[in-house]
Design goal:
This protein is mainly α. Among the domains are: about 160 residues, Glycosyltransferase (Alpha/alpha barrel), CATH 1.50.10; about 80 residues, no CATH class. Helices cover about 50% and strands about 10% of the residues. The protein is built from 12 helices and 10 strands. It has a two-stranded antiparallel ribbon. It has a two-stranded antiparallel sheet with strand order 3-4. A two-stranded antiparallel ribbon has the order 5-8. A hairpin with a 3-residue loop joins strand 6 and strand 7. Helix 7 packs antiparallel against helix 8 and helix 7 runs parallel beside helix 10.
């Protein structure tokens, strides 16, 4: 769809229509989507907010709805947005899955950007279809971001919260803890909410959160996925809630199958730059509108190098190849044992990322 918006090539719009037809066929009676769409069996009866599954479908359908006149598409968008309103929790967050199951899937979940992607959807909805209900939804989730920040000396956020606003267990290797990765994502969401509302309350939690993130870096330059509340030590849990002291003590399946340590340097520098620039503009009492030179500066700083790298990484057949790509080595009839295969492959995720960046760059620099 973005490629069509940039090039106006009708074949790209046709491909977007085809993708929308498939998504609409997979939309269930609740208005959302599960992990997979099966065209030859009944639709599921669960909405998954995990890994941008439902949220990305809604974002795409809303964007296409701006380009074409299709009553079936418009109805699908309306059903999806009603679902977003209905599934928002009383505290303002969104669960991992819906309907309720009586377990961690019911908790307000930041893990894998669950709530962050819901915020993006509602910001897009308010842009495309201004509605007081959507604005109220954004106010509620904005409040949830503020009240769920943990107190000093660890002013970050947890991956998931129970109904009492306490960090909670999810899977057996995901303990209640402070999560640097979630904290970086939440800083970005706070900046997005500020950009939308111009309400400075969304900037207030960020200084302490950034300071804590820099203080929490591991000796190897990465950040622990989970930091123990009180000690700020990295936590490593194997399946069955078995705690070990370090990465090397985890089972092979967990050590290779989950990101217990992550490199946040570039992402942290990016949100820190955005926040610092906003604060400098406010200090100088300049008006910060949605389309100021600030955003162009960000494009210049963070996109030009990306665009050059993306173009230079194309092979002689116009492809992006992932060298030695890691993927599970599955043996039919056996549970995965943590062993991977390595092979040069074309990755749809990399293709989508690169084309998206190129299109965004062209749109912003028309």
């Amino acid at each position: 769809l973005k490629a069509y918006q940039v090039t106006h090539n009708p074949s790209f719009l046709d491909a977007a229509r085809d993708a929308a037809v498939a998504l609409i066929k997979g939309q269930n009676e609740l208005g959302g989507w599960e992990h997979k769409i099966y065209f030859d069996r009944p639709k599921g009866k669960r909405v998954s907010f995990d890994d941008n599954q439902t949220q990305s479908a809604i974002s795409f359908l809303m964007a296409l709805d701006q380009e074409i006149d299709d009553p079936q598409l418009t109805r699908a968008v309306e059903d999806a947005l009603q679902m977003m309103m209905h599934t928002q929790l009383d505290n303002g967050g969104w669960p991992h899955q819906y309907p309720t199951q009586g377990n961690y899937h019911d908790f307000a979940t930041f893990n894998d950007r669950g709530i962050n992607d819901c915020i993006r959807v509602m910001l897009e909805a308010q842009t495309y279809y201004p509605n007081p209900e959507y604005r109220a939804s954004l106010d509620r989730v904005g409040r949830f971001l503020l009240i769920s920040q943990l107190p000093p000396p660890q002013p970050g956020w947890a991956q998931q919260y129970n109904e009492y606003l306490q960090p909670a267990w999810a899977r057996s290797f995901e303990p209640p803890s402070v999560c640097p990765l979630v904290t970086v994502h939440n800083i970005q969401s706070l900046l997005d909410l500020y950009d939308y509302s111009q309400d400075r309350k969304y900037l207030e939690p960020i200084t302490d959160a950034i300071r804590w993130l820099w203080q929490s870096r591991l000796p190897n330059g990465k950040w622990g996925r989970f930091l123990e509340m009180g000690t700020n030590k990295a936590l490593y849990y194997d399946r069955d809630r078995i705690r070990v002291d370090k990465m090397e003590d985890l089972s092979l399946e967990r050590r290779t199958g989950y990101g217990y340590e992550v490199d946040l340097y570039d992402r942290l520098k990016e949100v820190e730059f955005k926040f610092t620039t906003i604060m400098q503009v406010l200090k100088e009492k300049k008006e910060l509108a949605k389309d100021t030179g600030l955003k162009q500066d960000m494009v210049t700083k963070f996109m030009i190098e990306n665009v050059k790298e993306i173009i230079e990484s194309l092979d002689d057949r116009g492809r992006w190849i992932v060298k030695n790509d890691q993927f599970r080595k599955d043996d039919p009839g056996y549970n995965w044992n943590g062993v991977y295969r390595y092979e040069d492959r074309i990755s749809s995720a990399l293709f989508n990322r690169n084309v998206g960046i190129l299109c965004e760059f062209l749109i912003k620099n028309k």
